[in-house]
Amino acid sequence: MSDSILLEIENGLAHITLNRPARLNAVDFEMGARWRDVAAVTTSDPAVTAILLDAAGPAFCAGGDVVAMSAQAEAGAEAITGMARVINEGILSFVHSSVPIVAAVQGAVAGGGLGLMLCADYIVAADSARFVSKYANIGLTPDLGVSTLLPAAIGQRRAMTMLLQDRSLDAAEAADWGLVNEIVPKAEVAARAREVATFWHAGATTAFGQAKRLVRSGIGRSFAQNLDDEAVSIGERFATDEAQVRIQAFAAAAARQGKDNS
Fold first, then answer.
1. Quick check: 124 and 190 in contact, CB under 8 A?
2. What SS3 class is residue 108?
3. What family does this chain come from, according to its entry (predicted)?
């Protein structure tokens, strides 16, 4: 089995680690296939209630492995397109799933690495992290969902600034722009990301997952479709034992509060 991406599933938490630190976790053909396979496994396993995505070494992901891509130059455009489509299968699995994902990010995030990072629904970044496009610098165009996921996160104008002006963001700017959710010291990134995943896992796990799905799915649908999906989803959740226990506890607490205030 490949070790370019590590996977451990324990007690409902899937821990995925990008593991090519010597290449700054840049994605080559083999790693792309591994990404697709890991995504399929973790998002189809009903026992998985949260996913923690992180990376080994000094950087989260430097994007595509340009050296490996250049070695495939004789294969032409079809080989690169094929590689992108394989990775995209994994991106679709993660983004369209009802499993919430938290990413622990350190060091550089560049090019397609932005797309992999933005598969996560909550991003904890080290205070030393940096984010940059770099596509146009080597004559390439955005891939791995960057042209969709980046403007969804930070807005079209700011996405254009990153893609067309090669604007590099430090961690504070990334948080201000909405690219990441929070910043912590580098030594605390792993623990904080795991805390987020544990919060999902210990709470109303299905409800968190469905909230993620509704937000992600809403991007490509009409408002009327989103409203209908919301109505169906909340009705289905209301009927579950998990929700009923929590609703009754909430109602009891509200009743006690009312008596205290009377």
1. no
2. strand
3. Belongs to the enoyl-CoA hydratase/isomerase family.
CB 114, CB 134: distance < 8 Å: no
Contact 186, 127 (CB under 8 A): yes
C-alpha 131/C-alpha 113 separation (Å) is 9
Cα 209 to Cα 214: distance, rounded to the nearest angstrom: 9
Domain ranges of the chain: 5-202, 221-261
> Which tokens is 7 given?
């996977």
Please give the CATH superfamily to which domain 5-202 belongs: 2-enoyl-CoA Hydratase; Chain A, domain 1 (3.90.226.10)
- For the chain, which residues score pLDDT lower than 50? none
CB-based burial, 12-25: b 16+ in 10 Å, e otherwise? bbbbbbbbbeebbb
